[in-house]
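I have been asked to look over a protein record a colleague put together. The record follows directly below this note.
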Amino acid sequence: MTAFGAVVFGAALLLAALDGKTVSAQPEQRSVFLLTVADAITPATMDYVQRGIAYAESEGAELLIIALDTPGGLMASTHDLIKSILASRVPVATYVYPSGSRAASAGAYIVLASHVAAMAPATHIGSATPVQIGGLPSLPSDDAPVTPEAPMEQGAEPQNLPAQSPSAAAPSAMERKVLEDAVSYIRELAARHDRNSDWAERAVRDAANLGAQEALAQNVIDLVADDIDELLQAIDGRVVRMAYGEVTLTTADLVVQRMDPDWRTRLLSVITDPNIAYFLLLIGFYGLVFEFANPGSLFPGVFGATCLLLALFAFQILSVNYAGLALIFLGLAFIVGEAFIPSFGVLGIGGIAAFVAGSVILMDGTNQAVSLPAVGGVGAIGAGFLLWVLTRLTTLRRRRPVYGVEHFTDESATAEDDFEQDQGRFFGFVHMSGERWRAVSERPVSAGQSLQVLGVTGLTVRVAPAARKTPGDGSNS
C-alpha cells in the first residue's frame, strides 16, 4: 500500500469511528408505530399486521396502533391476526379511525382482542354474525360468511339475520355449531381485557351495532379520541394486560412512525382479489395452450405459467370450491378440444356450460365471489370463440382442397407437344403449376393449346381443351 493510500484508509476509519460515536451519543428516541388497515381482512392484511408487530418488537416500540376501517373479512386470517396481537410483546391499540369508519364483523373481533380499544367519533362497531358457507336463505347476497374456513359477513344489518327473519328455515346443526363457536370466541376475547362480553355475544347472535359513545358507555371499548395525538395522551399511564403480565403505558410525547403497506402487501391484495385470480387462471391456461400449439414461442408459455402459478397461489389462500375449479378446467379443456377435435359444437357447448357453472360456484364465500358480469363476459367470449370455430369449420369443409392432387382439379395447363393417339385416347405432356405432368385427353391436343384439368389418376392428369370465348363475349353493343 502506498503512503497516500494508507493516509486515505486511516482517514476513513477515523471518520467512521467519529460517526459511530456521534450516533451512539444521541438519546434513544421513543416511538409508536402506526399501521393502516382500510380494507377487508385478507391474508395480505394479516401478513401486513404480523410483519408490523414483528418490526415494532425488534425496534423496541412503546406501542403499535392499528387504524382500522373494515367491513369484515376471512375468519382464518382474522384468527391468525388476533393470535399475533395477543402474543405481541408490544402493546397493540386498535383505533377505529378516522370518523366515518367501521369495525364490522371481523373488525369487531380485532377491536375486542386488542390491548387498547378506541374509536373516533362517528364510527361504529358490530355485525359479527356468522353465516354458513355459501350464504343462508335470509341473507342478502352481498353479505359474507364467518366460519373457521370461510369469510365473515360484511356489515349485515340486524333485520338480515336468519334468527330475525320469519321466512328463514330453522338453523341446521352446522349453522348452530358455527354460531356457538363464534359466540364463545368473541366472549373470551372481550373477557380477556375486561370488556362487555354480553354485548359481544349480542353482536354475534343479533348482529348488534354500537356507535362510538354507546360503545364507550357499555364498556365495549376503552375510550373515544378525536385523533392519534389525543389517543396517545388519553392512554398515557393506562395499565394493560399482556401475555407476559401487566404493563403501564407511557405514551406521552411519543413520535409516531407510519408503516404503510409495501409492494408485497399491495401485490398480495391484488392477486387475492377473486376477480383478479379468476382472470390470472384464464390467462395462464390459454398461455400454455398457445405455447403447446406453437412450441418454441416461449413468451406465451412463460407468461401463462407465471399467471397460472399466481392464480393457484391465490386460490390456495382464498376459500375456494374445488368442484368449481375442476369444472372451470374441464370447461376450458372442452372449449380448446372443440378447435382440435371438431364435434360440431358438442364439446364447445358442454365446455361453456361447465365453465360458467364452475365460475359461479368457484368461491365458497359470498363476499369474495367472482362478479357475475365478469363470468358473463368471459362466457360470452367463449361462446364467440366457439361460434368462430364452427363457422371456420363449415367454411373449410365447403372450400376446394388447397393441398394434395385434389386441388389440381379445374386448374389450367398448357400442352408441351402434340398429343399422340393410342387406343382411342391422346397422350402427351403438359405444364401445370410450374411442373411437367403426363396427361391424357379424349380429344386431340396440339402443342401450346390451353387445357383444363379434369382430375388426377396416379401420376397422370386428365385434361380437356379449355373452352374458348366467342368473339362476341364481353363486347359492348
User: Anything to note?
Assistant: The mean pLDDT is 79. The CA atoms of residues 338 and 348 lie 5 Å apart. The first strand starts at residue 31 and ends at 37.
